[in-house]
Structures
1.
Amino acid sequence: MGKIFCMMGKSSSGKDTLYQQILEHEGLLLKSIVLYTTRPIRSGERDGKEYIFADEDMLAGLTEAGKVIECRSYHTVHGVWKYFTVNDGQIDLARQNYLTIATLESYLKIREYFGEAFVLPIYIEVEDGVRLRRALEREEAQSNPRYAEMCRRFLADTVDFSEEKLAAAGITRRFFNEDLDEVRREITAYIRKFI
């Protein structure tokens, strides 16, 4: 049976970059799970690639059909944004291993849905000062920077990925992203042990 590897970490921890590099690693043969969101599309994103961009009506229909595995709501300075994982035919654990980006909350719900033996965490950690500099640089590159939202996310991560919550979720293995090549090799070796 296949596995779902859930890559997690606070904002600007490098998980998006690592996710893409590990997904493209030919020896692992991992498939992505494209998540859904109601937030506006960002500059450079493509619908169906980074996310499936949905509206509230689509979310309501998927929920009514019993296809929503997990859904998170974030009260941002721009309104409520929702992110959700859908059982829409993308996931077939009898045939494939998967890599997805998750929050701690979504990881727990996906693990509950598919079973602890099939859902494994990959927690990325970076020193807070480094993360803040990265977040600011990323936001400055946007055509319409949302600095207030960047700050909200940064502060929310302290609560969302608290030591208590990580311990309660059973996450003990951490991958420290101080050197991108080194941490990518560590994560790749970790995944290979399970596939």
2.
Amino acid sequence: MNAHLGWLAAYALAQLALGAWIARRVRSAGDFFVAGRRLGPGLLFSTMLAANIGAGSTVGATGLGYADGLAATWWVLSAGLGSLVLALAIGPAIRRVAAQHDLRTVGDYLEFRFGVGVRTTIAALLWVGALFILAGQLIAVAWILNVAAGVPKLLGCLLAGALITAYFAAGGLLTSAYVNIVQLVVKLVGFAIAIPFALAAAGGWDAVRALQPAAAYWNPWQGGASGLVY
């Protein structure tokens, strides 16, 4: 357990070091909030992908997949489809207007386009949603630290929150983008290594299929609390 905790601590410190190094390039509010509008398609795609493959999808959605079956795919597939619409239509249009009028946040755009009332209403709704998402992420991280290294869950939540706050506060979106690239590489390599071991430990793919009743478990539209309708 101590070895696991050591590796996790080293990984966290490496992210902080990278954040501090990137932060030297942040010299203005525009650099902090929108990375100076210099993020290209590749970097934007990578950071969005890394942000969506978080503890909520790797721990929470995976648990739902085990409990509800294939229909749990929609918990992340819906985000992927929405991201395509954002990337190909909505995002470029907002970016053009934001660059023209020096808007730096979604709130700035909403106020510019619709007025302060809409901005305030959407901010309140997003605050509630973001609070639940953040709580889910921190709880999932706490579970990982608890299982892998025996760290108490409350301490795990505090450590995760402190790490996220530290590297983002250091350099804003630019720091987050580059740290997310490192996280994406680590995640994809980890998945590639872990999946064969997990299947072997479970007894192979046939054993996994036999864990749940086939009829409902492999329904892609509805299963348990998951599904397209939800």
3.
Amino acid sequence: TPVTVEEERSVSATLGSDSIKTGVYAGLVGLALSFSFILMYYRFAGLVAGIALIINLVLLFGIMTMFNFVLTLPGIAGIILTIGMAVDANVLIYERLREELATGKPLSAALSAAYDKAFSAIFDSNVTTLITALILFWKATGPVKGFAVTLTIGIVASMFSALLVTRNCFNWAIASGVLKRVRMSNLIKATNFDFMSKGRLSVAISALVILVSVGVFALRGENNFGIDFKGGDLLVLEAQKNVEEGDVRDALKQIDLEESVVQTEKSGAKEFLTIRSAPGTSDRIDKLLNEKFPEAKFRVEQSDKVGKLVGDELARNSLIALALGIIGIFIYVTARFEFAFALAAIIALLHDVVLTIGAFALFGRELSLIIVGAVLTIAGYSINDTIVVFDRIREGMCKSETGSLQSIMNRAINETLGRTLLTGGTTVLSTLALYFLGGPVLHDFAFTILVGILVGTYSSIFVASPIALWWSRWTRQKHREPQPETALAAR
């Protein structure tokens, strides 16, 4: 019975240690940036959010220790992303608090109303993100499962710290007389922009960009996929003397491997030569380069070997994970809102995923298993943003606000615009730290998250709501229902 090794991965102690150091450093910088921003913008309330953020991290590491979870490099990425997303709930509460105080309510009553009104948006948005994290934990393998673990624990911990810890801090401060009034910056003023009237234009632009993304992806073909999906060898070498990429490609022609991908990547002060080649060729490449460039004194820092069978299985599991995530989110949003909202949310989600992958292809990057985790995270983040807007629309309809459904939607988008920009900005701060300081291993991951945040913020405003409005109008005309537009009442 012959045995064939289908997957083999190794990393040197030096590269592993350096990667962890850069990941931890990026996390600390991301934490400092997020904490500084909310402290300057929300002042005392920002200090309370900072305390909740620290408790969130203590809970996260404590739970991981209790259950003996191993911290992987993608797991560190999950923690960094959690830092940015944890601020989301606090921003939702504080922006609600600003609205309640503007009505003239006393501080204690305004706080109570802010937490009560923000709860549904926080709960729904976190549950939809949790669905993708759990599916990723179920279907993922290896390091990406570590990312799913930290993201799942982080979501639960952030809900606890935002809804319970901060509320108790405020109640204690008010009861003890330390807090008598809350002051916040207000850089994003109230707007009254007619977003819905731009629906056709924005959806047309999105459709065009989607076509371009699909076209670029199709033209690149197999070049879109890394060895995780199509099989092959990955060799990461460190040299004491730099060797030009062109010289390496010329050397590879001698063993008919000129089609291999040769790149130079930097991690801190070190520079690595990365070679992606056909399955079972990395040993020959290592031997050849040491013979051709003895002065470089190459040292193997990482070596991955993935067979075709494993690559096919990973690709299949990734598609299944994405499909299950979409189905789970669709069912949940339909149950919590209406079919029109669920349909619009899923279309916006697919819009964000396609554009993110399209940007990945446009910049000549390769999809790997870690990027699958990033794409699923984008799906969760996209839904998170959309749910907040839909929750405000649902609230407006439940109050029987005057005007058509279109005017209610416009009002809801304008009311949540400040929150959308603030939460997107804080998550971007954490992800930028990961992008610039996380090293080459997490560079593509951070790039994917950055693109997804920008695209997701756009779609939650200009794509999801217009589609929900159009679907409700079409179904009403189809069934010839004479009810007014506000008949699309949320449960």
